[in-house]
Design brief:
This protein is mainly α and about 180 residues long. About 90% of the residues lie in helices and about 0% in strands. The chain has one domain. It is built from 2 helices and no strands. The mean pLDDT is about 80.
């Protein structure tokens, strides 16, 4: 036999068993190292995800705070301009009331003149008196009506002007 035959068969089995178990042990070590690498990679990924979520949360909070601040600024501008417009409208209504009072005085004066005209025209001929009275009555009525219309138009224009200026101020305040 050759030199290999001098080695008993059980030694060959032992050598094969050692080689197979060594190969298996090597595979186990490699798999354990791969599992450890995978666990550490998963931990790094989880940390990165947690950091990203924290960053996004902080960014969302900053954006929400900025939006609240802008909303409050705009509301303040709108409130200030609304209050200013309300004050101007109250002032305009006061002026309109004063103008209406003055117009009432003028109407009273026209009525007094009509009454005086009717009293003084008693001596004049009936036809002349009727023509003169009707002219005074017509002119007085026209004056009263035009005065009322002018007052209502002025009040409406003043309200419209104040509302337009307030709207423009609010828009300019919001677009700064």
């Amino acid at each position: 036999m050759t030199g290999l035959g001098a080695v008993p068969a059980w030694c060959w089995w032992l050598i094969a068993l050692v080689l197979v178990s060594g190969g298996q042990q090597y595979r186990v070590v490699i798999e354990q190292r791969a599992a450890s690498d995978a666990r550490s990679e998963a931990a790094r990924s989880e940390k990165a995800l947690a950091d990203y979520r924290l960053e996004v949360s902080e960014r969302d909070q900053r954006v929400a705070a900025k939006a609240r601040t802008e909303e409050q600024r705009r509301q303040t501008v709108a409130d200030e301009e609304g209050e200013s417009a309300r004050q101007q409208l109250e002032l305009a209504q006061g002026r309109a009331a004063a103008a209406e009072s003055a117009a009432g005085g003028l109407r009273g004066e026209i009525d007094r003149l009509r009454a005086g005209r009717a009293a003084t025209c008693g001596a004049i001929a009936t036809q002349q008196r009727q023509a003169g009275t009707s002219a005074v009555v017509v002119l007085g009525g026209l004056l009263e009506e035009s005065d009322r219309m002018a007052g209502s138009c002025a009040a409406a224009l003043e309200r419209s002007r104040i509302a337009g200026l307030a709207c423009e101020s609010i828009y300019n305040g919001l677009t700064k």
